Amino acid sequence: MLLAVDIGNTNIKLGLFQGATLAGRARLSTDPQRTADEYLIALDAIFARHRLGWSDLGGVIIGSVVPVLTEIFRQLLTTAGAAPVVWVGPQLDLGVRLDVDNPNEVGTDRIANALAAQTYFGVPAIVVDFGTATTFDAVDRSGAYVGGAISPGLDVWVDALVARTAQLRRISIAHPASVIGGSTAAAMQAGAFYGYVGLVDGITRRMVAELGPQTAVVATGGLARLITPEVPLVQAIDAELTLKGLRLIWERNAPAAGR
């Protein structure tokens, strides 16, 4: 059994793989104030739910974009005495060439997404990942990761609007019935939703224009199912794309004892 861990700015996604099959998944909140022991207790509970223990793991692969949590998980894994661990970074055989100015700046989630998109959807490809930030990542027809675009996530948009205005209140993010809101709350929903649809559609179209008309476009992340039905160029939604990419990186780099 392989444990894949994707440490993001808001959530930590965990996948348990039996071979290529995702046999279990879980999600924890990203909290730098939690200790390694607290995260270890949470992981023990997740394993217990799946009737597993640390001894059942053949390996662990971790991608992290939160340095504080990276160190916390290093402590956690030392305490747990876990199976061989692979930390995602440009020093590995990633299966995708990082053709960018500074490969060390590319987030581990973006690397995993690029490899998974290339493997499951072909090249050229674009991955739109809806997280704390919404990232647009491009893989060209040669299979090289050539960069992308980063925008504030929709939640960040709305939070910034509320924080900088005196009378606007936090709204739920939903697909509004009309682009013309009949109340302040409805107008905010319309502006947030359709404004974000326009951002995603516009960036995606421009990237496809550069990469070519045969480009595969796949979406992942929390708001993918809400936003992408309004973006015609998105061909598929894969909620577990990053975890699948981590598994593929593990297969290319696993220590012999963890295969």
Structural description of this entry:
The structure is a single chain. By secondary structure, the protein is of the alpha/beta class. It has two domains: 2-87, ATPase, nucleotide binding domain (Nucleotidyltransferase, domain 5); 97-244, ATPase, nucleotide binding domain (Nucleotidyltransferase, domain 5), CATH 3.30.420.40. It contains seven helices and eleven strands. The strands form two sheets. The protein has a six-stranded mixed sheet, sandwiched between helices. Helix 3 (108-121) crosses helix 7 (241-253).
Keywords:
259 residues; globular; 2 domains; single chain; six-stranded mixed sheet; five-stranded mixed sheet; alpha/beta; 7 helices
**How many domain modules?**
2
Q: Supply the CATH superfamily name of the largest domain.
A: ATPase, nucleotide binding domain
Structural class of the secondary structure composition? alpha/beta
Q: Supply the CATH class of the largest domain.
A: Alpha Beta
* Poorly predicted residue ranges: none
Shape descriptor: globular
* CATH architecture heading of the largest domain: 2-Layer Sandwich
Order of strands in the sheet with most strands: 6-9-8-7-10-11
CATH domain topology of the largest domain: Nucleotidyltransferase, domain 5
Distance between the termini: 10 Å
So how many helices?
7
Note the run of SSEs as H and E: EEEHEHEEHEEEHHEHEH
Reported for the largest beta sheet, the result is: 6 strands, mixed
Count all strands and give the number. Answer: 11
Overall residue-averaged pLDDT value: 93
Beta-strand proportion: 15-25%
